Amino acid sequence: MNKPISQKQVFKSLLDQKGIILSEQDFNEAYLSYRNFRKTYSELMKENFSDFEPRQRTFGEINE
Amino acid sequence: MSEPIFYKSIDELIRMYEEKSISPLEVTEDFLKRIKKYNNKLNAYLEIYNDDAINYARSLNDSKSHNPLFGIPIGLKDLVDIKNKITTAGSKILENNKATKNSKITQDFLDNQSIILGKTNLVEFAFGTLGINSNTNTCRNPWDTERVPGGSSSGSAVAVSAGLATFAIGTDTGGSIRMPASLCGITGFKPSYGIVSRRGVMDLSWSMDHVGPMARSAKDCLNIMKVIGGHDPRDKYSIKLEDNHFNEEVITNRNEIKLGLPKDYFFEEVNEEIKINVMKSVDQLSNMGYQIEEIDLPFVADGRKINIAVLLPEAISVHSEYLKNYKSYTKTVLNRMIGGLGVSSEEYLTASRAMSSFNYQMNKKMNNIDALITPTVPVIAPLISESSSPNTYESNSMGRFTGVFNLTGQPSISVPCGFTKNNLPIGMMLTGKINNDNKLLNIAIDWQNETEFHTKRPILN
Prior knowledge:
A: mainly alpha, B: alpha/beta
């Protein structure tokens, strides 16, 4: 059975795809940002926005 | 006491030109002398158009113009294109990037015979909150030069605060006009989304980018908006307000204007001195006759998160070619950018739908409210020496409040409302109904007619 890929490995592979090579220290710092952003998206994906289409700012008459 | 030339308002300078008590050339020379004296320390400007400004100002001396910004010396954030001038975006990658056309707002200023003094300093690619850019000389807060000025429109804020321009232009994707305005003790206005054309201004995030004025008063901001606010058919996201939307309207009915005070979130984990000064300002607004109503915004804590979730993949898309040159980015900005790699289309669309849901809830709450009052930022300007890491508490929390209104697209202005015991400026943020920019500006003007915080100047050694 294949070992699950860690989030760090996923991040490394994303950097590899872009041809970005970082020192160990820079990689670890950038990974912290990546991990925080992953948490944000994972929280958003759990919510239900089925009533809404993207990027709307103004709406017609709003009734409760 | 009369202010020196370099601190005069737009109206004052225009009046002096009409009375012929001073000429555009004399004013421009005054500013350039002051820039020469202070810019080496403050680093507000990346490039100064000394000869161009002098020659142009000289050509205006015999002009009988009635343009509203005639002869006014200004700075443009180095994201804004001027034909045949370099737009670096504070980056090594664009250090030879010569613009082939004027941005729409550059053309507006040229059509109005304003005098462009130079390009102002900024965070690389406008992607940061403290105003630090290791590519450029460090931009310094005029109130304490060991402290950050805020970002990303750092140079524009510093230029206005230190009397190195009458006004400047900034951009705001998560608070980059309002945060440095607050930290530098000036007035910074983010208009409603689409009111000011972004044509010829470098993108960071198409959904969140706004362009707006940074000046020493809301009245000056209004005068600037009369010129740059308006539909641009060549900017697809530009919206059309009614003609003459921007006008000074003296407020005679304060008791009919309701200001919402959202206590939660905007007053949690906020520096105590900021909280005290903003609450004193709320009391003063109440004494002036405005209705103050506490308002509950239970959803608002998600705002900054959604702002970033939409912003990041758009920024990565904007930067897809530049990232091939990743070694030329500053570490801080590269770190932020690549932290957002791997966002799927599903995730981006979910974030965009979350944006709509958030905006719907905010629209509902704003139904009966004319403007919200909050602190602009939750923290005091940190020391430059303690701000080199990309993940300091201050850099992560600085945009907590401002970013919410990039998401909603509401007009939002930071005005000075006090000082810390160490004489650092404190900003209050007023945020209006979307596309009701004029009303918001006039409330801010009314506030400044009754207070003097915006008239205080830093002492420059």
